[in-house]
Amino acid sequence: MLCVSPTTPGPCAARRPHRPSCTATTCIGSPRRRWRLARFQDSAAAAPPAGRLTRPPPPPPPSSSQPLPVPAPRTTAERLGSLREMRRVWWVCGLGYWVQGFRCFPWLALNFHLTRGLGLTPAALQLVQNAGNLPLVAKPLFGVLSDAVYVGRAHRLPYISIGALLQLMAWGTLAVIPVTGDTFPTQMACILIGNLGASVTEVVSDAVVTEFSRTQKAGVLQSYAFIILAAGSLLGNLSGGYVLLRTQEPKTMFSAFSILLGLQLALSLSTKETLPSSHRNWNICHVRTSLSDNLRKQFSNLRTAISEEQIFYPLMWIMTSFAVVPILSGTMFCFQTQYLKLDPSVIGLSKVVGQVMVLSLTVLYNKYLKKIPLRRLVAGVQTMYALAVLSDLVLVKQVNLMLGIPNEIHVLCFSALAEAIAQFKVLPFSVLLSSQCPPGCEGSLFAFFTSGLVFSAIVSGVFGVGLSSLIGVSGGDYTSFPLCILLQSLAALVPLGWISFLPEKWTADDKILKPR
């Protein structure tokens, strides 16, 4: 084949074989090369004259059928900065869990404030406690909003800031208003607003933990969150009883907690949100769809996730296991403070012991218990809970005094045992839902989960008020109180009747739960 080049060969052409140059080369004898030459000539003829600039065509508008543009790879400095911001987001989330546990600090003062300052009866105190939890039932709405509605380009940290601000307003108001019966509606409104802010913060913190847990070993981050929560509760009860005993002034504790909420608000406002799915969700939710369509889609995704049987049946079991057991916390608090005349420090220290139990159980679960199948583990925990309730019966019947154990020692060691076991029972279900939660539905699903637990607690509290009123337990007559505790222990065994709702062989190390 003969190749003719328009360029003149150099002096080295005689000493080496001819190689085609990078310019246009006419090749004779090959149809394919003749076609390439014609294509080159056509493109050269269509090219603009020299010195003339042309405007590139505008990019086509994004559509649902076209993929989103792939971002350019980040530099090492950008990756390190993103990692630091992500760690700071985790610090904000951890502080949220710690403050959530530390809420027992002002609530201990609030219980004394309502009973001694306003003179509420045990039944009225328990009704106020349960009515104050009503905003927590709206958690699914907050979860859907945090999943679907962005504030700027963030959809987690702004809601933490909003929740901290609402709590700051509520507890700050309680710290300044007078303690009279005329201000009770205002105090009740503050309780509702404070719990509303707490519910928003809890929902978003659970969603952040679920997002981070996708890149970690199963159950590790949930265990850490429980440890942080228990540590906050431990310090809150320990310091709450001491401060209340020293000052006898609940407003001091309200003011101190307001300062802590101000610090949480400042940290959340100064932190840039950097989550694994933030930018991806922003592009999907705001480039392609409108706000109403996104909300509608999020509610549809939540309904679809809940309808999955591997999520639906465990949810039904954990909710009903709390709802069928009557809670007598308000009556027991009045019995300990009014009948037994126990100091606030003793009650606070008993809560501390309970949180130490939660910490110990959480560490034990992370090490050993998560390898036990869920159905067997939960059945054992529920049985232990029913037996722990009977420790209150020993106190009410004063059997501990017959054994030479003072009331203070018994309350310290056993008063919060049942509450600690009930709190720990939620951890395996949190790990289960984290492994089964669809991507993009973290806030919605965990908000539904926690709101269902709150609703079950409200039903249980109303059930307990009705039971104590029916049997005849009042502020001055506790003769029928042992019967209430006995019925409560028997009711704790009832959920074992539908324990088959839980998967038989699933453990925390399993990523996928097979359908029933």
UniProtKB/TrEMBL annotation:
<dbReference type="InterPro" id="IPR036259">
    <property type="entry name" value="MFS_trans_sf"/>
</dbReference>
<feature type="transmembrane region" description="Helical">
    <location>
        <begin position="224"/>
        <end position="245"/>
    </location>
</feature>
<feature type="compositionally biased region" description="Pro residues">
    <location>
        <begin position="55"/>
        <end position="72"/>
    </location>
</feature>
<keyword id="KW-0472">Membrane</keyword>
<dbReference type="GO" id="GO:0016020">
    <property type="term" value="C:membrane"/>
</dbReference>
<dbReference type="InterPro" id="IPR004324">
    <property type="entry name" value="FBT"/>
</dbReference>
<comment type="similarity">
    <text>Belongs to the major facilitator superfamily. Folate-biopterin transporter (TC 2.A.71) family.</text>
</comment>
<feature type="compositionally biased region" description="Low complexity">
    <location>
        <begin position="45"/>
        <end position="54"/>
    </location>
</feature>
<dbReference type="InterPro" id="IPR039309">
    <property type="entry name" value="BT1"/>
</dbReference>
<feature type="transmembrane region" description="Helical">
    <location>
        <begin position="159"/>
        <end position="179"/>
    </location>
</feature>
<feature type="transmembrane region" description="Helical">
    <location>
        <begin position="311"/>
        <end position="333"/>
    </location>
</feature>
<feature type="transmembrane region" description="Helical">
    <location>
        <begin position="377"/>
        <end position="397"/>
    </location>
</feature>
<feature type="region of interest" description="Disordered">
    <location>
        <begin position="45"/>
        <end position="74"/>
    </location>
</feature>
<keyword id="KW-0813">Transport</keyword>
<feature type="transmembrane region" description="Helical">
    <location>
        <begin position="445"/>
        <end position="467"/>
    </location>
</feature>
<dbReference type="Pfam" id="PF03092">
    <property type="entry name" value="BT1"/>
</dbReference>
<keyword id="KW-1133">Transmembrane helix</keyword>
<feature type="transmembrane region" description="Helical">
    <location>
        <begin position="479"/>
        <end position="502"/>
    </location>
</feature>
<keyword id="KW-0812">Transmembrane</keyword>
<feature type="transmembrane region" description="Helical">
    <location>
        <begin position="345"/>
        <end position="365"/>
    </location>
</feature>
<protein>
    <recommendedName>
        <fullName>Major facilitator superfamily (MFS) profile domain-containing protein</fullName>
    </recommendedName>
</protein>
